[in-house]
Amino acid sequence: MSKRVAVIAAGQSKFGTLGKSMKELFIDALKDCELNTKELLTKTEEVYIGNLGVGGSQLGNPAALLIEHGLRTGISAQRVENACASSGFAFRDAYRAIRSGAKVSIAGGVEVMNDLSPLHQKYWLGVSGDTEWERLAGATFAGIYALMAKRHMYEYGTTKEMLASIAVKNHRNAINNPKAQFHKEISLEMALNSPLVADPLGLFDCCPTSDGASVVFLASEEVARKYTDEPIWVTGSGAATDFLALHDRPLISEIKATQLAMKQAINQAEIKHSEIDFAEVHDCFTIAELLAMEDLGFYDKGEAGDAILRNDTGIDGTLPINVSGGLKAKGHPLGATGTGQIVEIFNQLTENAGKRQLKNVQTGLAHNVGGSGATCTVHILRRE
Amino acid sequence: MYCSHLKEGIKLGLITHIFSNLPRLKLKYTGGSTQLERFYHASYKFGVDETPTTLGVNCMINFLDSINEHKSLELKSIFISYPEDFELDTFLEATGIDSDKVLIVNGRVNLEILWEIGKTLDTCFINITDPKSSNNEIRGVLTPSAILFANISSFNPLLVLDNFNRFNNLRIPTLSRINSLSVEKRVLESLTPIVDKEKLILTNTLNGKKLSKLKNFICSNQWFGFSGDATLLLNLQMLVFGHDSSSDIEKSFILFNGNELGSVTVSGKIIVKNNSSLSVEKFFKTEEKYTNLELKVEEKKQCYLSKGVQNISIEKFLKLQNTHNPSESIAQGAFISNAQYLKEKNSRYRLVSNRCTECEEIIFPPRLYCRYCYSLTKKDLPLPKTGKIYSLTTIMKGAAPSEFVAYQELDSIYSVGIIELLPNVRIISQITDWESNELDINDEVHMVFRLIYCQDGLRRYGFKFTKLKIF
Q: Omega into B365 within 30° of 0, i.e. cis?
């Protein structure tokens, strides 16, 4: 089973408030792929589309609908739903399809969130925790992450400044990403003084509400070689689940699923942490990026905050994180986020990242979390 | 012998008092105090997530807890009088009371008759007053305005009255309404064998004028309060009896005010009278210390009530809720059906957990399999109703899930915490009746029964936690 899996094309729509339908967004993502997608689509055997289904308008059969609008019928296509990690899992499914013998597979994701009124939006967001308990306590997702942040602060002395610094960095990074939702630098003071959403998290600690789509073509080694001289290999894939409700977890200052998924991925890739050059991590809230830094094993528990203040994770730092702007500033169209991260890793490894291109990068990591850590995928990609 | 019965009786009576879930303030004796401000705040905050049902449930649970402490006591029957929107089923489920024991006495309650019955039966009487009823003499009082129990074991009857209104601030004219509670006189008469009612005469002055109507006022020795929107000067003398510890006298007085105008000046004297039949000395061993104790509190109150939310009535609350929750149509997204919700009513109403019969671990919220040993056999185990804040947050205005919008509109913000009830037994819950900046990790909190939200024309109830000490 040493079948190698390559990513041969990846694209995304712009993320943001776009006024486009899910079909339009998906076609935008297809058009963004460098390769001849028409030809690739004819070779595609399996399609996995991540989608949470905000608003519920196309909860049934969205994958067939989208791929049909990409002008392909007659193949296997399915929706993958694992909250915000939907397309991280779609990518894992597409990866395993190749491992199982498919020649070309598609992983993608799409979400349209901004066409709902605020009241409807709030009904449809916050459905990914243990709704019978967490939702009924009036907790929003910001609230759930705030509970984690507060506990992390209590256990490790993490400060609001550390969290705000993550927002500042990701906003700065997004300026160089034309696909990002925000292109506006923010100061630490702005971030610290932003209105509270769920104490201790302020507005700038939270990712925006975004529309968007992303799509990734995966292929077997044989097919990949025909299309590119420099395939990007998926060398590690990990996934894990955990208790949905925070109150059921032994600790809430960590995301166990991240730790377990990372362990699988890095063992499979047979590399050390130090060999990972950059990472796209799931920063739906600033605290989530800090938790990811620790739970992925780049820093010991309680050490990530200082690393942020040292700018270790800045674009010039020792481990650039969320060069794309992350969920925080690039945007977070729930179902499209996981493969959106793969798009960034692909662009960096193929040196197509424009102004934000990192130098001499060989290995990148994508970390996608569903809910407050009930589901998680970690993927490691490497250029030959 | 007699005294100790009385003492016990009073204690029980007080425990069951509805205001037992108000903070027991220690007033500073001079000047303003932050505690007083806090109380103002508490009085304003109260009620936002309360309905007649929650008031009745919390009151009853407190009462039952106190009964349970006294193994010799057995509650045999309960008389309940309640307003139209009181949900009896929820009340019974949340309190776990056997419906066979309940006698419903709706309409205008004839306290006199109940009193007679109460003298011969082991009885609890709970009166949940309809705020909308025009012929109710204690209308506007949403709290169970009186809790009467009689002849529990060999105790003598005792009535604890309150005259507060959490929702519509009690105004000065209301003070006179107390007098119209004719039941008081009857109660006093009933009490005659126990105490000399002459000793219980309370004199009041309002703006220097004596309230001649207010002659007899028996007040729970734990709570006495009033409020007003103009300068109120009240001198009072009262006999305090029934304290089981001398230090409690500091908690005897509550100044209750919920208005943004004017100021309140209260000065009072607690005259501890030595009544041989009461053996007051037994209750106040250091009688001298409390004789002529001066209570003086002056406070300009504005603080919390300037939020633009005032005089919150339950009607307004429900109206607002209905505004956002029309009976059909809008429930969507994370909608949880009532049938599904009520499957877990033991957990949601009374914090009942599962204890695995194999490994003895506690599972809460309950699961089918024991999460530690996969056993399927388990027993119900009520959890302690007191826990510690493990983590917390405050959901700010505009950030609440849709079904909480109405609640938030009244309260503007609300707190959510993870509460640790036992080591590694935690639950997420709202923390109510408290300002978020006064909450912190490790603070002790207590369960109360409250309204969660309304949806599809139903009120959904469950536990919340509050930092206020119940007992």
A: yes
